[in-house]
């Protein structure tokens, strides 16, 4: 089993806790993503997906439960997704509007996010978060 170590960025939400961010690459573009252990699956920002994907499936059914809410989602395929040294081909994803999240981040002086890394990837790759080392460890067979 190969261990993939991904650096984490800790951001302070002032009196409302902390979020962990990781740098990812989708469509050849670097993005920051929130690591959300409570999210059922990973999601991408709707406007980011719409600007890169021609074939998008619209659905009213919420396919992702995250710390953010949504009323409708889009489904799309990302040809190549990189999370540190982990490379995923033809990654099926859900997109939702992260504009409110990004406005809140901007108000706190933080950079925008383009995605949320959720339980689907964290479970599949047996993720471990090491706060002392500020690393996300993923294990690929």
From TrEMBL:
One function term, GO molecular function aspect: aspartic-type endopeptidase activity
Keyword field: Hydrolase, Protease
A Pfam cross-reference name: Asp_protease_2
Organism of derivation: Pedobacter nyackensis
Gene Ontology terms: biological process: proteolysis
Top-rank lineage group of the source organism: Bacteria
Keyword Coiled coil carried by entry: no
Taxonomic placement: Bacteria, Pseudomonadati, Bacteroidota, Sphingobacteriia, Sphingobacteriales
Protein name: Aspartyl protease
